[in-house]
């Protein structure tokens, strides 16, 4: 599938659980256009092992994302009822109780498919029956979407590999620095460090100092 970088993020309309217990129908991505940046992240399944560590890690940094005007959204192929049940399960028992940002149900797997993160592929067998080749769950995809609804960054991990939430924050800060100052962010840049002008002179001056 062609990369979504620089392209409009696929919209969706689904059911989500917000604030850990509220069912919201017709939850869309487009509701945030013109208002907020979005970090949309996919995880394979509820009631698994690496996934709760990621969801809690995002919750722990929720205030930092909110300060940057970022809406966090989690998504998996589970139903909204599965999300709700997992949200009621305490952290010390492998649950995600305490997570408050929206968790979207992609029970049809259409959202995962549109973002190119569905691990399995559906195809008919010799008898015309549709079967999934591979795991019918989402890879650990993460998409940074700007306020105009354009995908500016994405990373997709295989199922065993948990993500770095601080890196997601860093990428938001880098995008916002570029938008505010017009400077590009070199390798290993972090907020407060020097960026550079996207010119030959700018690159030469930066490399000379570093």
From TrEMBL:
Keyword S-adenosyl-L-methionine among UniProt keywords: no
SUPFAM superfamilies xrefs: Thioredoxin-like
Similarity field: Belongs to the peroxiredoxin family. AhpC/Prx1 subfamily.
Protein name stated in the entry: Thioredoxin peroxidase
Functional description taken from the UniProt entry: Thiol-specific peroxidase that catalyzes the reduction of hydrogen peroxide and organic hydroperoxides to water and alcohols, respectively. Plays a role in cell protection against oxidative stress by detoxifying peroxides.
Organism: Coprobacter tertius
Positions of the Thioredoxin domain: 3-177
Keywords, sorted A to Z: Oxidoreductase
């Amino acid at each position: 599938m062609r990369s979504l970088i620089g392209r409009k993020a696929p919209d969706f309309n689904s059911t989500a659980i917000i604030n850990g217990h509220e069912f919201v129908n017709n939850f869309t991505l487009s509701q945030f256009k013109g208002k907020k940046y979005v970090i949309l992240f996919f995880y394979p399944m509820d009631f698994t092992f690496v996934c709760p560590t990621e969801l809690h890690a995002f919750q722990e940094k929720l205030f930092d994302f909110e300060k940057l005007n970022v809406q966090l959204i989690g998504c998996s192929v589970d139903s909204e009822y599965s999300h709700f049940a997992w949200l009621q399960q305490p952290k010390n028992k492998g649950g995600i109780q305490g997570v408050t940002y929206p968790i979207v149900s992609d029970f049809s797997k259409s959202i995962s498919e549109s973002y190119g993160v569905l691990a399995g592929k559906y195809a008919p067998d010799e008898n015309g029956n549709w079967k999934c080749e591979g795991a019918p769950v989402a890879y650990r995809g993460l998409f940074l979407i700007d306020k105009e609804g354009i995908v500016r960054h994405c990373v997709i991990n295989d199922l065993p590999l948990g993500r770095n939430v601080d890196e997601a924050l860093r990428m938001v800060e880098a995008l916002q620095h570029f938008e505010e100052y017009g400077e590009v962010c070199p390798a290993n840049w972090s907020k407060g460090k020097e960026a550079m002008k996207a010119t030959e002179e700018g690159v030469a001056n930066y490399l000379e100092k570093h």
